[in-house]
Write a structure and sequence with these properties.
By secondary structure, this protein is α+β, with helices and mostly antiparallel strands. The protein folds into two domains: about 70 residues, no CATH class; about 160 residues, 7 Propeller (Methylamine Dehydrogenase, Chain H). Helices cover about 30% and strands about 30% of the residues. The chain is built from ten helices and 15 strands. The radius of gyration is 27 Å and the shape is elongated. It starts with 6 loop residues before the first helix and ends with a strand.
């Protein structure tokens, strides 16, 4: 993306031990903009006014001008953070490529959270940023990528990824049957072809997993949880399956089955804790999955709380 560092640049920044700009190279551009200009001779009155202003702030003007050779990275991190508030995502991504200290400040900066919220609103499910969770920058980058990509599935047995700006096809994912449904999540996409469910890696186009014979007949609908670890499928047989995706999308284990419909399930939507389904039998089903997630046991239709309208 436009505001991301090149991979080799990012790796070098992570491994380098220096925390300051090279004054003869990259730092020169920054310091030239931020250093106090000392070439211009101050008029006596102007100099006196400046000294008086600095004195009121407890700053000795002589000390200030002696230290004018310092660069942007010599500023306190809190002040640098405030300055970074005025940058847009592309500029913030660019400045993170300058050196290690700026990379850390720009990448972990809370302004990425504001970028995310301004563009897409606050996530419905709270996002914890623990050791194993993604940063707001990573969430923004992934969401921004998805917003620039269009996904399509067709009876020509393909799923295609398109660039939204140029409308050019980026990748073609081949299937062996008609594609009825697809659901993207971050850098993966789930799709259905015939009675099977496929999970693909969108960056490489590689197939990560396949669930053969997921339903009796075609699989018409898919839904995924916010984390992507739960996958729901609705089939021609009127049943709904919930799969838990473990490992690096290498294994999909069926942990629940419901049969709330007498006709094919054509649409699914999941917003914790409710799974909503629509069928050609004219009914809508609401299923509460909280009990399943708490006990982590296999349940049938009778063991889950569901409502049919």
């Amino acid at each position: 993306m436009a505001f991301e560092c090149q991979k080799d640049t990012e790796d070098n920044l992570r491994n380098t031990s220096t925390n300051h700009l090279d004054s003869s190279q990259a730092g020169k551009a920054v310091s030239d903009q931020l250093n106090l200009t000392s070439n211009r001779k101050l008029e006596p009155l102007e100099s006196e006014n400046l000294q008086g202003a600095f004195s009121k702030l407890g700053i000795h003007s002589t000390d200030l001008f002696l230290k004018s050779s310092r660069s942007f990275t010599d500023l306190p991190p809190a002040l640098v953070s405030e300055i970074l508030n005025f940058l847009d995502p592309k500029e913030l991504g660019t400045i993170s490529c300058v050196n290690t200290s700026l990379y850390k400040l720009a990448s972990e900066h809370h302004v990425w959270k504001e970028f995310y919220r301004e563009r897409w609103g606050h996530p419905v499910n709270s996002i914890g940023l623990g050791q194993d969770d993604k940063s707001w920058k990573e969430l923004f980058v992934e969401r921004d990528f998805r917003s620039k990509t269009i996904y399509s599935g067709s009876w020509d047995m393909t799923v295609r990824l398109w660039d939204r700006a140029s409308l050019k096809c980026l990748k073609v994912l081949m299937h062996n049957d008609w594609v009825w449904s697809l659901v993207p999540h971050e850098t993966t996409i789930g799709s259905t072809a015939g009675s099977s469910v496929h999970i693909w890696e969108t960056n490489t186009g590689n197939q990560l997993a396949v669930i053969n014979g997921a339903h009796g007949g075609n699989v018409y609908s898919l839904a995924r949880s916010h984390t992507g670890k739960l996958l729901f499928s609705g089939g021609e047989d009127g049943s709904i399956h919930m799969f838990e995706i473990t490992g690096n999308f290498e294994c999909a284990r069926k942990i629940a089955t419901w049969i709330p419909h007498t006709g094919p399930v054509h649409s699914l939507a999941f917003e914790f804790p409710w799974l909503v389904s629509a069928s050609s039998d004219g009914r809508i089903s609401l299923i509460d999955v909280r009990g399943l997630l708490k006990t982590k046991k296999r349940f049938s239709t009778e063991n889950a709380d569901s409502k049919v309208m």
